[in-house]
Amino acid sequence: MMTRLSIPLGLLIAFGSSAIAEEKRVGERRAPAPTVSSDQLRGIFFDDLSEAIRGERPLLSTLRKSAEAMQSKAASKVASSDGEPTNDTWSRLISPVSLEDEVKRVRLHFDSIVTTPGAFNSGGYQDARLDLTVLATLFAIIHEHSADVRWKSDAPAARDLLARTAFNCKAGSTQVFNEAKLRKADLQDLVSGTGLNSRDAEPENVWTEIADRSPLMEYAERLIGSLEGNSRDAAAIAENVDAVRRDAELISALGEVLTKEGMDEADDDDYANLSRAMISESKQVVAAIERADFDGARSGVSLIRGRCDACHEQYR
């Protein structure tokens, strides 16, 4: 009895195709391999890999340092193209929130001063000069601040407009009152988000053209008075912690402004040391608040008062 084998059709086709292909390969003719001498390859390939490297082999540490240097240079170029400083001096002294809140507060006070020509010419121009000087200084800081502070794009133009009117407010007149009214409208546009009509301004801060020391000294005295009022004891600080922080940061920033190149007495070592000490103690108040050490913050306020009094005794 014969037995039938069951072989799949696909397998038979595969075997057949393989046999045909093998038969073709046996009869296939190919071109002979080219003969190339070593002289013909000279100048195209290196005989030794070491010949391809000039100088010493680079170390991994060297490559990393080079990459870091290039990244740092690129970051510096980006900062410069954005018009921002390459350091964060202001961000270590004052927060965007404190700057924005103080601009709003001083602007409201300025609005209450610029009402009628009579009131302005009778003494209101002096208060206007103080407010405009402070606002010009704040916008100058905003311009250089490394953080994204509100009104930053308008800050240089606002700085120049306010500083110019502050200078003119050394005396009262109808002309100066009308100029102050224009600044009042400009500030309203800024705060409302409309922005300034013109943004023409100097690219850099020229501190001697932005603020006089006399109104800034008066402003510092008011800030310290506010600090003392809100830090009578630990409970008072706890209730007014935001105001205490803001005033301390503003005093710290003010101390930095007063020592800028060209400012009155900025090249006096004793004056500079008093300003730097005030900056340091203001930062200590902020640090004490952050760790809820309200007694420590109160002690810091007392130290700031001492520095301010010492400064007023020697400099006006």
From TrEMBL:
Domain of life: Bacteria
PROSITE patterns on file: CYTCII (PS51009)
InterPro entries membership: Cyt_c/b562 (IPR010980), Cyt_c_II (IPR002321)
Gene Ontology molecular function: electron transfer activity; heme binding; iron ion binding
Gene Ontology biological process terms in this record: electron transport chain
Signal sequence residues: 1-21
Key words, A-Z: Signal
Entry protein name: Cytochrome C
Organism: Rubripirellula tenax
High-level lineage: Bacteria, Pseudomonadati, Planctomycetota, Planctomycetia, Pirellulales
